[in-house]
Sequence to fold (382 residues):
Amino acid sequence: MPFAQLVIGPPGAGKSTYCNGMHQFLGAIGRQCSIVNLDPANDNMSYPCALDVRDLVKLEEIMEEDKLGPNGGVLYALEELEHNFDWLENGLKELGENYILFDCPGQVELFTHHSSLRNIFFKIQKMGIRVSNMAGKDKTPEQELTTFIVQQLVVVHLVDSYTLTLPSMYISALLLSLRAMLQLDLPHLNVLTKIDNLANYAPLPFNLDYYTEVQDLSYLLPELENESSRLSHEKFGPLNKTIIDLVEEFGLVGFETLAVEDKKSMMSLLRAIDRASGYAFGPAEGANDTVWQVAVREGMGTTDVRDVQERWLDAKDEYDRQEEKDLEEEVRIRNAASQVETTGAAGSDDDMEDDDGHAYDEELENWKQNMPDSGVRVQRKA
Ligand SMILES: Nc1nc2c(ncn2[C@@H]2O[C@H](COP(=O)(O)OP(=O)(O)O)[C@@H](O)[C@H]2O)c(=O)[nH]1
Ligand SMILES: [Mg+2]
Fold:
């Protein structure tokens, strides 16, 4: 397990859905991946779980036995896990060198001030792996030199993009993200999830890049005051200003975006995560590449937030229609290819198709041309 993502975020932010989606995406690009569930309340998993903390502790049993509520129960369960780290360590060793996704619990206390989750992450990081420099050679153990590689962990902190719809929620998301970054002290990416849902809410007063790049927060002050009569009270003015100054002084928080069902969005996020973890493409990704493997490796997946704005807010319906058309076209090409294959008439255009009769080069070319790269810079509305 040389590389892993620690997926955190408040309940409902989309952690388990993301783990499922990322597991499928990594599988599609040929990266061996396993999911480890660290959420003792997660009793309905939609993904194949390689190691489940519920085999060690179950939230409902703790609540029953120790007369705790759901929040206290999760904290207690994580303390149990910390004190029984051997169980996790042995389980992780079984997973060999797979890329790991940790689906973490959502109680914010765990990544704002409670120490167990942080201690568990540090222990995982220290586990590392030993790599022999003499594999396969006839040497005694004394002669054998080993290099210790520290585990490369990246915290992926998911926040529902619904928080953008109210200035006070956005500020609290900034504070939460900042606190998690300081508390966990690991390479860290904050991600606004469900970006495909944003168009369903009232229009935002600023463009998406304002929120993802955490631009001049003083613009938010009047918006905050307009939000509710309580926030416009004279006492709140200086408090709001102080909080905003605090976030700006650290200058640490920024956001990636994610629509979990959109491959381009997943690819763009994976590239950001790979940059943060220093992931080097291994031999598992090489021969028989699919279009998505090529695209991830060649860096074609980097998406600008202004393109995300155009795709999911400004021209969502047009893009949805176009994608539907592209999909129909892809299905048509696949069907035509498989028909050619079954009638044995294949071979007229070998270099355009792989063994499955799939027109990868053509698909790659189409895809490159359809990459959202309009060059239009959307102006801030307010
Ligand atoms: N529209 C949309 N819904 C999502 C996305 N990601 C997650 N969801 C939904 O958000 C809800 C909560 O997701 P879940 O993964 O259970 O959140 P968790 O509590 O953080 O593990 C589910 O109903 C998901 O279907 C997304 O990218 N787009
Ligand atoms: Mg979950």
Notes: The domain at 3-287 is CATH 3.40.50.300 (Rossmann fold). Residues 346-360, 371-382 have pLDDT under 50 and may be disordered.
